[in-house]
Amino acid sequence: MRPLVRSRGREGRLLVVGVGSGSSRTMELVQTGSGGPVDTLFVTTDESDLQRTCADVKFLIGRRLCGGKGAMGITELGERSAEDARRDLEPYMTGYPLIIIVSTLGKGTGSGAAPVLASIGEGLGALVLNFAIIPSANLEPMPRTVANHSRNKMLKRGFNLVTIDQDRFMEMNGSQPFAQTMASLDALISWIVISLGNVVFGQSKRCLTVSDLRSVFREGNEGTIFIGGSFTGDPKHAATEFVTCGLMKRDPRTGKGFMLNLVTPMGVKDAQTKPFIEAVMDEVDGRNKTVFVGSLEDPHRKEIVDLIGIITGMEDGSVRLSDITQKAKADKGQVPQAVHDRWDIPMIR
Ligand SMILES: Nc1nc2c(ncn2[C@@H]2O[C@H](COP(=O)(O)OP(=O)(O)OP(=O)(O)O)[C@@H](O)[C@H]2O)c(=O)[nH]1
Ligand SMILES: [Mg+2]
């Protein structure tokens, strides 16, 4: 018997969908760390993923095709499995204005099923943002090629992508064992997703709307995440870090759409946050972009302001990252040594 699915009340909530084995930890971190206006749905072809993930709804697809053993790296199997389950998945995705799909591209399930889930979400009228993680070129050359193929196909179909390059994250995060790198990346992504849920649907100090996000992605259907942070009195440091810490090698100054979310301690005055916004706008050439700014107060933090951004429509090809780093050197005397130890996990409480 099919479970009773209620879609009422979803209009004020974010749905986070995890697709494939590699998204299971992010799912778990979102599920346990949120407590806010966020629902989770985990979709996989591999029965063994179900035990190690926690989500509001866990969905095994493609039992007939994959026998519960995963899509074995075959994208078509992942795709067919999701297509077969389309009707069954729909009720769980109905009624949400915003859906974030987190997938690790490169093998069968993530690469094959994520576009199907995106099309289901869009068909139901939601704004769908696809957080797509691209595997490392050095460590997984084949999956990376497959992942880039899926990513290009999704872009051609007009889906909104927030592309996350594992290699770029490794550069930012420093040399750590691979498993630790993935754990840190998953922690970072889950924190960003939860913050986005809170700034749009939660008790934010300055709210962002779904329509703001839509406008940002109208400027370009691929974007990436930028992050930076510093003590409340040092906005310049946060801005310099922000502009150099993008999760894809692109020059943020060439972007066209820009969503910025500030995460601050409680009670921080507008006079204190304004210099952060101004410093970032200066660094990323914000005057030439469609910009939306939101902010959240985090009761558990003291003194640190974090900046989370999504920049879309950046120019492909010539990566002028070295220019940016040069500029950072000139400004600060050195490239900022990331405050990123904080991202080593419990970013999520
Ligand atoms: N961020 C992150 N990435 C992971 C993790 N585990 C695997 N990956 C990456 O995800 C890519 C795809 O692997 P999986 O997610 O296991 O593949 P799948 O989507 O389940 O596909 P099939 O196993 O073929 O069904 C790999 O190439 C890894 O780079 C993880 O825990 N975190
Ligand atoms: Mg798998």
Keywords:
349 residues, disordered C terminus, 60s Ribosomal Protein L30, Chain: A, 21% strand, 10 strands, binds magnesium ion, single chain, Rossmann fold
CATH class of the largest domain: Alpha Beta
- Mean pLDDT across all amino acids: 90
Largest sheet: 10 strands, mixed
- Summing up helix and strand content along with how strands pair, one would put the structural category as alpha/beta
Query: What is the H-and-E element order?
Result: EHEHEHHHEHEHEHHHEHEHEEH
- Can you tell me the residue ranges where pLDDT is under 50 for at least 5 consecutive residues? 333-349
Which range does the strand content fall in?
15-25%
User: What is the CATH superfamily classification of the largest domain?
Assistant: Tubulin/FtsZ, GTPase domain
CATH architecture of the largest domain: 3-Layer(aba) Sandwich
Instruction: Please state the overall shape, judged from the principal axes of the Cα atoms.
Output: globular
Bound molecules: guanosine-5'-triphosphate, magnesium ion
Number of strands: 10
Compute the separation of the termini in Å. 37 Å
General description of the model:
The protein is α/β, with parallel strands linked by helices. The chain folds into 2 domains: 11-201, Tubulin/FtsZ, GTPase domain (Rossmann fold, 3-Layer(aba) Sandwich); 224-340, 60s Ribosomal Protein L30, Chain: A (2-Layer Sandwich), CATH 3.30.1330.20. 42% of the residues lie in helices and 21% in strands. It is built from 13 helices and 10 strands. The protein has helices at residues 24-33, 47-51, 63-66, 75-84, 86-93, 109-123, 141-156, 166-173, 178-201, 210-218, 235-244, 270-284, 321-332, and strands spanning 14-19, 38-44, 57-60, 98-104, 127-134, 160-165, 222-231, 257-265, 290-298, 304-312. A 10-stranded mixed sheet has the order 3-2-1-4-5-6-7-10-8-9, sandwiched between helices. Strand 4 (98-104), helix 6 and strand 5 form a beta-alpha-beta unit. The radius of gyration is 19 Å and the shape is globular. 51% of the residues are buried. Mean pLDDT is 90; it is low at 333-349. It binds guanosine-5'-triphosphate and magnesium ion. Residues 20-22, 25, 45-46, 70-73, 104, 106-110, 133, 135, 140, 143, 182, 185-186 line the site of guanosine-5'-triphosphate.
